[in-house]
Amino acid sequence: MPNLLAKGRLARWSGVAGASLATLTTMAGTVLAAAAEHAPDAAHGGEHASGGLPQLNPANFPTQIFWLALTFGVLYYLMSKKALPRVAEVLEARQERISRDLAKAAQLKEEAEAILAQVEKSLAGARSQAQGVIAEASAEIEANNQARQAQLNADISERLRTAEASIAAAKEQALANIRAESTGIVQDITGRLAGVEVDQAQADAAVAAVLEERRG
Question: Whole-angstrom Cα distance, residue 87 to residue 43?
Answer without folding.
Answer: 48
